[in-house]
Amino acid sequence: MCDDPTVGPEQYLEHVARQLAERCWVVQGVAAERDRPGWAYTVGLTAHHRPELVITGMPVARATRLLDGVAAHLLHAAAPPPGEQVRLVSGVLVEFVAVEHPEVHLVVAHALYGPSVRALQVVWADDRDHWPWHPGFRSRRGGQPVLGPRAT
User: Fold this and answer.
1) What percentage of residues in the chain have a pLDDT greater than 70?
2) Tell me, what DSSP letter sits at residue 47?
3) Largest CA distance in the chain
4) Residues 42, 109: contact at Cβ < 8 Å?
5) Vertex 75 angle, CA 71 and 77, to 5°
6) Is residue 146 part of a domain?
7) Cβ partners under 8 Å of residue 68, min gap 6
8) Which of 18, 74, 82, 106 is most exposed, with the fewest beta carbons within 10 Å of its own?
9) Domain containing residue 16
10) How far apart are CA 30 and CA 84, in angstroms?
11) The predicted structure's pLDDT at residue 1
């Protein structure tokens, strides 16, 4: 909708629904603004009985590639439990965190699927494998907000 301000919310949701008819999921990017980092999330995994995925604090193009890889795996495997840490093929170390309020951060997914949307945040470690909750985490402007409590 930012690319074409003449497109209203209903038209945009119809556009996303057409894309989902052709593929299993799409990635929705939200650009960074001032001190608020951008984020990206999947739309469509809910229809496959999987949680949607979200990444914060990473450029949208890189987040899209990462989300596409994790989503492709998720369609053929059980969803990882919150707290699971995995080193992805790309080398990035991630931890999965249950998103506390997906309706706030995954607006398009929530508009299409309603309150049944569940989500996992793919929290990424920096180039030294430090997490955003550790001192010394190297982040971009605005950091990497974590959208739920870490599993114990």
Assistant:
1) 96
2) G
3) 46
4) yes
5) 105
6) no
7) 27
8) 18
9) 9-124
10) 26
11) 46
122 CB-near residues (< 8 Å, 6+ apart): 53, 54, 55, 66, 67, 70, 94, 96
Burial label for 107, CB within 10 Å (0-12, 13-18, 19+), is middle
Instruction: Spell out the residues 6+ positions from residue 39 whose beta carbon is closer than 8 angstroms to its own.
Output: 29, 30, 54, 55, 56, 57, 58, 63, 105, 145
C-alpha distances in Å from residue 70, one per residue of 9, 15, 115, 140: 28, 24, 23, 22
Nearest to 100 by CA among 148, 51, 46: 148
35 pLDDT band (50/70/90 cuts)? confident
The pLDDT score that the predictor gives to residue 123 is 97
Alpha-carbon distance of 12 to 111, in angstroms, equals: 11
Query: 62 lies in a domain?
Result: yes
Is residue 89 in some structural domain?
yes
Residue 102 covered by a domain: yes
Q: How many domains is the chain partitioned into structurally?
A: 1
Amino acid at site 44: G
Report the share of the chain in percent with pLDDT over 90.
77
Residue 90 neighbours by CB under 8 Å, 6+ apart: 65, 66, 69
CB-based burial, 65-89: b 16+ in 10 Å, e otherwise: ebbeebbeebeeeeebebeeeeeee
Strand partners, 119: 52
